[in-house]
Amino acid sequence: MSGQSGAGSGGRGVLENVAARVLYFHNTIDTHCLLMSALGIGALAALSAAGVVDGLDWGAMTRPAALLYAAILVAAIVLALKWCDFYPPILLAAAPVAASLPWLAGGADLILTTLAVNLTLFVVTHLALFGGPYVVIFGAWSSPVRGLWHSFFTLAPTTASFWICQLCTNVVTFAVLLRPRPDRPAGLLFLGGIACAVVVARLARPRSVLSPMFLPPTGRPIARRVLLLSVDGLSLNLMRRARTPFIDRLSREWASAPAGAVTVYRALTNPAFASMMTGAPPEVHTMRDNNLGRRIAVEGLPDYVPARIYGSIHMRHFAKPHWDVRVVPITRMGYETDEVLVQWLLDDLEDEPGLRLFVVDLSTVDMTAHAFGARTAHYTRAVEETDRRLERLFAALESRRVLADTTVILTSDHGQSCLDHSYLLNDDEKYVPLVLCGAGVRRGARLRYRPSIVDYAASIAWLLGVRYPEDVMGRVLAEAFEGAPVPGWTDDAADAAADAVAARPVAAGLGAAAPDRSEAAVTTHVPER
After folding, report:
1. 1, 13, 244, 333: which could form a disulfide with 337 (CB 3.0–4.6 Å)?
2. DSSP E strand stretches across 16-125
3. Contacts 24+ apart (CB under 8 A), 20-27
4. Are residues 139 and 59 in the same domain?
5. Is the same domain home to 280 and 171?
6. How far apart are CA 328 and CA 315, in angstroms?
7. How is the beta sheet containing 357-362 ordered, strand by strand?
8. Residues 112 and 257 in one domain
9. What are 406's strand-pairing partners?
10. Cα 400 from chain centroid?
11. pLDDT by residue (tens digit) across 477-493?
12. 469: closest CA among 319, 284, 278, 281?
């Protein structure tokens, strides 16, 4: 199954795709700091020409040697910041950089003007390009101002974070204007401060948490289909602040992880979904953020399992070009986006019997957090409305007897922290709900450990009776499934469970699949990484 489909595939979809890419380019920190620095330097040049600001020798700055040194300096600084993922300890560079500026600039006029220009650019572009889209989507005119306020309390590698953006933009701008040299005390303080902060940030940044690998041989399909249902941006902690009677009932009656599941680093939609489809962390599949030019470098389930993915333009950006994706244009549908996705899903479950994997990303909760903040009444209401939407969806699934041969995994790609998510700085960001129900699921089962969202790919492959993705590093959530071998079982117990599974009737048309890894032991081991 290949191709890109959906309501977003026409002219409006192309426009939304381009607009989304422009927004990512602006809002992601590595490209944002370069763009804002270039605009800031242009503004300073205009102010200097008008005689408003002194202290800039544009003749000296535009000499070939000076331009070459500035280019090398900026490239080195940005690459160093990317090496440490712009992780928050880079803010430690603020003190030595600030201390060096009076000597490098020779006065306060240039320093203050540069800071004022970059601050103005941040405020204007944040209001327009971070908050503006939510005015279009939700009609929420207060969203830009709310977002600007929340940016002072958010740490993320995006324009959602005032402090990260201003530090990086000003460091790059002053590097071009002042060209600090390491053979002079002030330059050494400037560059050495950045280098030390980068090293601390690199050492402090987290890595994706992986479960001990457990991959029992796959065999006869347990489910005809699997539905991976992700409520984008649904934090386990924040969900528990809302009234979610339907999700609570599902958790009690079916299999669930009381401690939730842990997302990957960095906790962004594209890397997270790539991990859920490949069974590999971002360090392996190489999609590390939502920006331009990111591609999944390893095999994913939709490469060989008939699958369809539903969601916003994010889903098209994370997916490989030949994967089947249906995109809802959120600029047109707004609050109705998730309703459209649910209806598409129900239609395809009935009309597309050959599809075996359905991946749905419901967007309203995540968009609400970005528009208004995660710890707000708006977010809580969005969670509660999603709970009611899920209840209607499951009622439709039951009335159509879909759950008799379909396994549903209800979860999220990442949590939320204030205005954004990425760095895994707190539990609100890290942990997401996990409930499993339907075909092959043990009612009332509780996972006594905290799995990773990386584990979903292996679990889906086991349920469908297909081979595991080539670079899978997760585990099958065997404790949630009837008759599944679990880590530590003896060979006899594993054989008995396999016999019980093989005896269970399976929907017509599903043949037995040969085990992918016959040498896979039914034991727990930790992969080398």
Report:
1. 333
2. none
3. 20/313, 20/314, 20/317, 21/292, 21/317, 23/129, 23/133, 24/290, 24/291, 24/292, 24/317, 25/291, 25/292, 26/125, 26/129, 26/159, 27/129, 27/130, 27/158, 27/159, 27/160
4. yes
5. no
6. 10
7. 4-5, 325-327, 307-311, 357-362, 225-231, 406-411, 435-438, 255-256
8. no
9. 225
10. 33
11. 999 999 888 886 444 44
12. 278
Last residue of a domain, one of 204, 235, 265: 204
Do 158 and 195 sit in the same domain of this protein? yes
Range of the domain at 134: 4-204
Tokens encoding 401: 């007897």
Least confidently predicted of 12-21, 138-147, 408-417, 479-488: 12-21
The percentage of the chain sitting over the pLDDT mark of 90, rounded to a whole number, equals: 72
The CATH number covering residue 435 comes to 3.40.720.10
Q: How confident is the model at residue 47 (pLDDT cuts 50, 70, 90)?
A: confident
In a domain, 214, yes or no: no
Cβ-contact 271, 264 below 8 angstroms: yes
Q: Each residue of 68-108: pLDDT tens digit?
A: 999 999 999 999 999 999 999 999 999 999 999 999 998 89
Per residue in 201-215, pLDDT (tens digit) is 999 999 999 999 999
Domain membership flag for residue 254: yes
The angle formed by the CA atoms of residues 156, 367 and 345, to the nearest 5 degrees, is 125
pLDDT tens-digit readout, 367-423: 999 999 999 999 999 999 999 999 999 999 999 999 999 999 999 999 999 889 999
Q: Using CA atoms of 130, 332, 421, 114 in order, give the dihedral in degrees to the nearest 10.
A: -10
Cβ(284)–Cβ(473) under 8 Å? yes
pLDDT at site 489: 47
Nearest to 409 by CA among 482, 460, 450: 460
What is the rounded CA–CA span in Å between residue 302 and residue 383? 29
Give the pairing type, strands 225-231 and 431-432.
Answer: unpaired
Q: Are residues 166 and 277 part of one domain?
A: no
Among candidate residues 418, 426, 372, the one with its CA nearest the CA of residue 154: 418
Question: What is the Cα–Cα distance from 267 to 265, expressed in whole angstroms?
Answer: 5
| Burial degree of 157 (CB within 10 A; 0-12, 13-18, 19+) | buried
Residue 390 and residue 475 in one domain? yes
If phi over 0 gives left and psi between -120 and 50 gives alpha, with beta otherwise, what is residue 446? beta
Is residue 514 included in any domain, yes or no?
no
- Domains of the chain: total: 2
Backbone angles phi, psi at 65, to 5 degrees: -65, -40
Give the residue from 157, 156, 227, 231 showing the smallest Cα distance to 413: 231
Verify that 15 and 129 share a domain, yes or no: yes
CA–CA separation, 106 vs 194, rounded Å? 21
Helix or strand holding residue 409 (H, E)? strand 406-411
Q: Are residues 358 and 473 in the same domain?
A: yes
The reported pLDDT for the residue numbered 512 is: 30
For strand 307-311 and strand 357-362, is the pairing parallel, antiparallel, or unpaired? parallel
Position 20 in a domain = yes
Maximal C-alpha separation, the chain: 86
Phi, psi of 409 (to 5 degrees): -115, 110
